[in-house]
Amino acid sequence: MAEALFPAGLLEALSALRPVFHAASWESFLYLLAGLLVGQAKAGVVRASLLAPPSYTWRRLLDFLRRNRWSGLKLMGALTSLILSRLYPEGLPAHLFWVLDLTYLEKPYARTVEGILSHWRPHRKAGQGHTLKGHGVVVVGHLFHQRAQRFRAFLLGGLLYLKQATPVELGGDLFSQLPLPQDTHNVLVVDRGLCSLKLAKAVRKQGVYLVGRLKRNAILYLPASEADYKGRGRRPIYGAKFRADEAPKEQMTRTEMLVPVDGTLRWGVVYRGTFLRRGFTQPVELLRVEVGTLPPWLLLVTDPTLTTEEAIWAYYGRSQVEVGIGETKALGLGAYRGRRLPGISRWPMVLGVVHSLLQLMAVGALKVELPRQGWPWYPKENTVGAIQRRLSEWFLRGHFSDFLAREQKFEEMREAA
Asked: Structure pTM?
């Protein structure tokens, strides 16, 4: 049985994902998951076939991604519920932070990608052909706020970025599939590439607030004053308009505080004011963060209960999603070599499960007894890479011991001959 491959603590956590799959799909999912956890995903199917018994046909692993009936969005929803229950067993905090981002993938040696439209990369990469074609993925994750103002990103999954829709539209659709708790403030943190009025309106319909970095030429308005009323018709709502980088500082409160910059704390000046955006029904908060000679940050905040310090640290913690994307790419996010659209679309969802499980074990929310690394030159045992190496060692000791013994005996016989 595939359940015998996993440690007891990890198998207990995986049981929360069981309702998403049928019986045959569940078995294939466990074998594939075990193969991905052992090492990089480029050989995940091969490793999974080694873990499976001889009676199991390895082609069923490919059918699991291409043909079996299971929903990647339902898997992402079940994974979100699992993460929240593990991270906050004593109750949810006042604010839950989520993150959206866009990453590009490529197929280095393929001229076209069958089943999806071509997406041109912004620049070439070494080892690729003259026709550089690939596709992107809009990823969603949860930002876990640890002690001492540290964040961890849990990647939950992603959607293919096709040319029929913009990343903002895909991000809004992807985020709407999450089972968000209603008894807390859910705050979505985005960068300049996704921070837009369309996204703010889309997530606000779901009861979600937004923290994002505005572009300098974004237009905001002052509330209309009595002088803006001409004496006839309806009273205006919007007063004088201005660019975000030309916000009137006299209309904003000034605060001096420590600001995180490149991993250090530096004294800076933060201006905060309440303004309007045309098309958005509620007032928004604009934060202008000035630190030394660096270009100022222009942050849009739609949650009035979020303090200035919380908003700045949340945006600073958004950079952890880049770390999570890098870790997921190391696990094999761009390594899927299929040409079918269902398989390409489902692959980020499966890798999201792998990354989230490793991250849960790294933060201590999922207790699993694993061997220690014992490396004096790398003492950290709670990173995603360290957890994966320790888990691979557990698999090697528990399930590949007979295989390794045969290999060692074969080597001894060859040396003796």
From this structure: 0.86
